[in-house]
Amino acid sequence: MSRVMGFLTRRKGGTGWDWTDVFTFVWLGSAVFIMFGPALWLVMSSFKSPAQLSEFPPTLLPYEAQVVTVEGYDRPLPLFSVTDEAGTRTLAEVRRVGTVAQMVDPENPTEVQRINIANRTPVREVGFSWGNYLDPFLRFDFLTYTKNSIFVTGVATLITLLTNSMAAFALSKYEFRGRGFVVVLIIATLMIPLSVILVPLYSIVSGVGLINSLWGVILPTVATPTGVFLLRQYMLTIPDELLEAARMDHASEWQIYWRIVLPLTAPALAVLAIFSVVWRWNDFLWPLIVLSRQEVYTLQVGLNAYAGELNVQWHYLLAMTVITMIPVVLVFIFLQRFITAGIAGTGLK
Amino acid sequence: MTGVKEVLGAVVAAPLGWLARLLDTPLRLWQRLAGQNGMVAFFLLPNMAIFTVFVLLPLVINIAYSMTTGAALFLPERTYVGAAQFERLLRCTDYTDLMTCQEDQFWIALRNTGTFVVLQVTLLIVAATITALILNRALRALSFWRAVFFFPVLLSPVVVGLIWRWILDRNGVLNAALVGMGMDPVNWLLERNYAFSAAIGVTIWAHLGFFALILLAGLQAIPRDLYEAAEMDGTKPARVFWRITLPLLMPNMLVVIVLALIRAVQVFDEAYVLTGGGPGTATLFLTQYIYEVGFASLLKNPGLAAAASILMGGVLIVLTLLQLALGRKNERKGKLK
Amino acid sequence: MGRIQLHDIRKSFGAVDVLKGIDLTVDEGELVVFVGPSGCGKSTLLRMIAGLDQPTAGRIEIDGTDVTPRSAADRGLAMVFQSYALYPHMTVRANMAFGLQNTRMPKAEIDTRIAEAARMLEIEPLLERRPGQLSGGQRQRVAIGRAIVRRPTAFLLDEPLSNLDAELRVSMRAELSALHDRLGATMIHVTHDQVEAMTMADRIVVLRAGKVEQVDTPLNLFNRPANLFVAGFIGAPGMNLWAGQAKGGSVQLDNGAMLPLPVGLAVPDGAVTLGIRPQHLRPQAGGPLQAKVRLIEALGPESVVHADMGAGNGLLAVLPGQPDLARGAVIELGYDPQSVHVFGADGQRLG
Ligand SMILES: Nc1ncnc2c1ncn2[C@@H]1O[C@H](COP(=O)(O)OP(=O)(O)OP(=O)(O)O)[C@@H](O)[C@H]1O
Ligand SMILES: [Mg+2]
């Protein structure tokens, strides 16, 4: 505890309070709140029932109304805490008519009391509406969306790693005519965003018959100039003598690629793999254009469609947003070091 | 940690290794037949084929596309109209009043994007710089604080949009807090100026960590002894900031600004999920305009969308060249040192 | 097995001619050393033999077969690189096995060969380590082991010892020689350390600027250098070379000294260069050479004397023991005329 206090009250230079110290505290303090708060709020809300979600002001934690099974009634009855002239007690609601509710004491189920609803509050305790998570999978198409997203992310990442590393290998370890041209071409297109070529790309993808196909989402994204560039820079640092030693060792060029160069490029491949997974999982605009049938939606497109409905079912939507967030959060927790190093080193995102 | 890494590595490598071995014999044969150049072709082919079809070709087609009209999807079936699409985009009877423009939506999107770029990039850079400076103060638990700011960067734009849509909802938690403090609730996403500010705020929230990280790397690269020398000279902290930190951070800062500009010009997904371009056209940005004209609206006009995207591409190319030039300059400086 | 013949090998990188027509025969089981100054094309020539580069012109034969169009893998040679080029992600064992697996050799056979090589090179305890966990000398052994297990027709070694410290280099030199005797295989060894060349080689090939200057046994090179370049390059400290005019059985230097030539050697009158190894000079009162001592390097058993003879002619002498000389003293030296080398105006040896 004293360590925590020591940490919290650490100041610049150790003596006196500079205004910059105050500012640092305010900035970092609000950052924790503003950066983590929204996501936490999302998670909390995703466990609330529809009734609770429409409450204003909202409660911090998800609650569930308490129910009891009372003798003589088939279904469980909701419990209320009642405060009136007769004192405070806990009753179960049988039926409600206008502003008056008919209630019974669970201990004494035969006597029905009439209570003004202004005099009572529901009894509830913290509880999670797991149905928010289960229903979309069981009753709607979210299982399909999830499968589609996993397929797109996995396949696109594999193809990206394979094709990019092969191209980077050729561009870094062989001398051939036109090499400089290809390298310049790749660097020149590094920054061309998808949004500039949307229309013609759509016509090409539809020309090869990939509209409403997951492959139509995957293929345009896998030949990333960024990946080729990153891997080539890394491969340039592998000494040529290693390749020559392998050639003397009867290795074919293909073997040199996958037995020597690929393993040695592992750190760069890992960075590219992480980024590729995040990119492809998060892709939105292009899938939105290519995919127009429910059964091929990815999670992002599915979520958007769901959020665009006239009557948004927030309890499902929030839960599915959390599901969509999970892989990225896992990547973040376990691989943060890799990612921050990758960004600081390459300016890649 | 190494254990996990190795197990993972083995799991991924085993099937791939099997595949690679399978290809071994045919490729040896190919190498004999076609020699080393044949192998180079083999290594380049998959990537370059995909790259050509899905990046280069569209770039070229785009220009042809923008000079055609009609609803047909494939270029040969479209009618050539020359520069008519550009004219339609840019023609206004009175340039002081956007409503007199033939494509008033384009002009609105242009104006919104322009305003957005200026405000968002300014605020983003200021916030990122402050954050980087604070993180650079030799904090304890730096990796924790870095994580705090970086966390939203990886979230998908759709998730970001939905998180904030939920918070800014009329009955959302932000209004609850306002009411709790005795203020009136605000219709965040249904009033023009609030919605626009929300789009700016949310995109800053999502990207702050990325830019702060790059700036932090720049700050950490400034040699410590410079500060120590300044301290020996009794230089005031403010002066140290203006005369040492800022000038030395400048090369990084310029790259970051251009990068932020490039991103801001293309703003789409977070804002689209958050506001859908509304209320009205208050948050209609260029990319959304292209998307709607090209794909979503009832009266699709792909030629017009292509023309608009070429105009946007022009801006981006200028920014990209600027960035490459800046990067080149930094590299040279780095070498000189 | 292992006879390598080069016929008029030429190599140009763009407009630069690096090798200018090399003819050479390396006999079976021979250890041949390429020496020459840095940049003379030793590595280039070796890589050509290995098949890592193609000559611009010329023919390479191994055991009588023309292998010029063959790739490196199909020539049956093994190479040890200056940087060792061990695969950093593989264990020592995997490094040695890699080349054998590529030829689809049965696993049992691979294991025996590795065990045998490891025993020979005393690297058995290191087999499961990675190159990063080895010292320089150990890496060197592994690199050699990787070549040995292949049982190649010939070994090609490009400055394999230059990354080692002086002491290790001497012991590895001896080991390499012993290994050559044991294996009896053809070896081509590149170095620019002439002591290495002298001690190891059956024959030395002296290269300069892409040309072969002389090919001979180490002692023949030392005793009968074919030209001025070889004379100056082989032997340490370097041979004294003085320009002068030959006249009737002796040579007059620019400073006026008259030096006698070997008896029975017919030297036409005119400009020649006279060469005497520093070891062949000895103190002799009234000797033909007089010089002023500039610097003395006392090594203990012998002393290297740097001196000036005037008219810009320097003199180097290796004198036995620790002669009592001071800087500035004038010494008089003589020599056995039979130990003198004479080179004509074209730089070629006379006689
Ligand atoms: N790929 C190349 N392109 C152009 N010139 C080259 C190339 N490889 C070598 N050279 C040139 O050929 C000449 C011979 O090089 P080489 O490596 O054979 O020298 P070396 O005798 O091995 O020298 P060292 O003792 O320093 O290793 C050098 O002048 C070098 O600059
Ligand atoms: Mg060399």
TrEMBL record, chain A:
Organism expressing this protein natively: Pseudotabrizicola alkalilacus
Record's protein name: Carbohydrate ABC transporter permease
InterPro entries in the cross-refs: MetI-like, MetI-like_sf
Membrane topology: Multi-pass membrane protein
Record family assignment: Belongs to the binding-protein-dependent transport system permease family.
Coiled coil (UniProt feature): none
UniProt entry keywords in alphabetical sequence: Cell membrane, Membrane, Transmembrane, Transmembrane helix, Transport
Record's keyword annotation contains Nucleus: no
Sequence intervals crossing the membrane: 21-44, 150-169, 181-202, 214-235, 256-279, 314-335
Domain spans labelled ABC transmembrane type-1: 146-335
One GO-annotated biological process of the protein: transmembrane transport
SUPFAM superfamilies in the cross-refs: MetI-like
Location(s), subcellular: Cell membrane
Pfam families, sorted: BPD_transp_1
Endpoints of the signal sequence: none
Assigned GO CC terms: plasma membrane
Automatic annotation (TrEMBL), chain C:
GO molecular function term, any single one: ATP binding
Annotated Gene Ontology cellular component terms: ATP-binding cassette (ABC) transporter complex, substrate-binding subunit-containing; maltose transport complex
Keywords attached to this entry: ATP-binding, Nucleotide-binding, Transport
InterPro entries membership: AAA+_ATPase, ABC_transporter-like_ATP-bd, ABC_transporter-like_CS, ABC_transpr_MalK-like, ABC_transpr_MalK/UgpC-like, Mo/tungstate-bd_C_term_dom, NA-bd_OB-fold, P-loop_NTPase
Domain ABC transporter: 4-234
Family assignment from sequence similarity: Belongs to the ABC transporter superfamily.
PANTHER family (UniProt xref): MALTODEXTRIN IMPORT ATP-BINDING PROTEIN MSMX (PTHR43875), MALTOSE_MALTODEXTRIN IMPORT ATP-BINDING PROTEIN MALK (PTHR43875:SF3)
Protein's recorded name: sn-glycerol-3-phosphate ABC transporter ATP-binding protein UgpC
Organism of provenance: Pseudotabrizicola alkalilacus
